[in-house]
Amino acid sequence: MAEFFGRKSRYVRMDDLLPPEPVVEKEEGVGGGVRVRGGARRHVFFCSVFASLNHVLLGYDVGVMSGCIIFIQKNLHIDELQQEVLVGCLSFISLLGSLAAGRTSDAIGRKRTIGLAAAIFQAGATVMALAPSFATLMAGRLLAGIGIGFGLMVAPVYISEISPAAHRGSLASLPEIFISFGILLGYVSNLAFAGLPDHVNWRVMLAAGILPSISVAYVLTVIPESPRRLVMQGRTGDARAVLVKVTETDEEAQERLAEIEESARVTTNDKAVWREIARPSPVVRRMLLAGLGVQFFQQATGIDALVYYSPTIFRDAGIASEGHLLAATVAVGLSKTIFIVIAILLVDRVGRKPLLLISTVGITACLAVLAASLCLLARGALPGGAAVALAIVTVCGFVAFFSVGIGPINMVLSSEIYPLRLRAQAVGLGLAVNRLTSGAVAMSFLSICRAASVAGAFTAFAAVSALSVAFVLWFVPETSGKTLEEIELLFGEAGGSGGDVELGDGEHLVHGR
């Protein structure tokens, strides 16, 4: 089994994180030994899992709302515009949470910010479940959106800062698998509670989302604070104590501490950080272009519209009954969850950029086929049964390609490409771009479908997806296997050509023969 640190290959299997390892002594040279601690891999893995639990909340909210909206419309008698506002506002308000989370996580710590995110979401979900009117429902949704924004930003940053370079891609992908799992839970909740009375079922569906957030209280007693954040606060001794738990040797702990202290040596206040982001150097500009661009394209291809409005898409394809519509959405959720697991197994073995290319090309193809099939159905050139089959296959194919690449990798890149002094704010800005794009798509989808048809909407998404392929080719470098500090050097030497980054970065690659 490859070593977690100091191994010869930079690629590992995800299951290498899990097996327990005994404490052994290894001789080095003539005069001494190196003590290797067992359980470091498990500790890092479970800390990453616990930090990702808040992402179940976002996934559940997205999934459950696709079914809830059907029954909310019946019970509260809301119109199409109110549906769009109810669905899309979550993304807009969560961007405020994402922006605030950067400063908050620096002020109170990554760990406490994870707890704050869960508490705010619980309050919002409670208000939604008890809402007697559309206005109250909106108030609860806005509150929940702030909590989700906090959680979206802080978990990837925490994971990237506690993880070693060799496994950071797999571990930083965990939040996306929890989002996918949450979406699946939301779809199953829709199917399970749809038989209740219309004035009760959607409330039970929303209230069930409170349960995952309760587990975060336990998380706060288990996970340590990020060592990088501790160094930023001048708590070097505490940072070393954390590193001792997440590394296999004292020597590795000391090396990582030295790297963190070096990267944190240039300290800046919050205003200086935003000033640097607003007027970036060429190196920071290349980082922002890659990070913000991937965040934009992840949502601009229409994933949230597809997940939120999948019943609408399937109804347009010819599925009539509510039960069949909700069952088809469960198939979408299963597809998304299965392929996100595959992505986690591959992201550190295959690399970020190859998976992004496979993902964006596959998404483009699925969107084009979906748009063409809906267009042919509208013209009577495609049998109804074939249209339903094509719709289910292409929608499931879309989420599969999304989940194997741009879905999880956007946050892997965003959490690892920025220097420590900018990381929290830059990741928060990226998530703001992501949520803003998501909200714009979700709040306009029904209106676009009414004006240009569902087929027209997905034709536009296919065109945007084709642009994302070109963006990945030209502007996204390969960061797999590099430490966070070495990635900063990578962008310094990149010269702006994403395709040539690896050729010009040979002496900084973290791999050996």
From TrEMBL:
It is found in: Membrane. NCBIfam families: SP (TIGR00879). It is a multi-pass membrane protein. GO terms for cellular component: membrane. The keyword Transmembrane helix applies. Keywords: Membrane, Sugar transport, Symport, Transmembrane, Transmembrane helix, Transport. One of its GO terms (molecular function) is symporter activity. InterPro entries: MFS_dom, MFS_sugar_transport-like, MFS_trans_sf, Myo-inositol_Transporter, Sugar/inositol_transpt, Sugar_transporter_CS. This is Major facilitator superfamily (MFS) profile domain-containing protein. The chain crosses the membrane at residues 44-73, 85-102, 114-135, 141-159, 171-196, 202-223, 325-347, 354-379, 385-406, 426-448, 454-476. Belongs to the major facilitator superfamily. Sugar transporter (TC 2.A.1.1) family. The keyword Membrane applies. Residues 47-480 form the Major facilitator superfamily (MFS) profile domain.
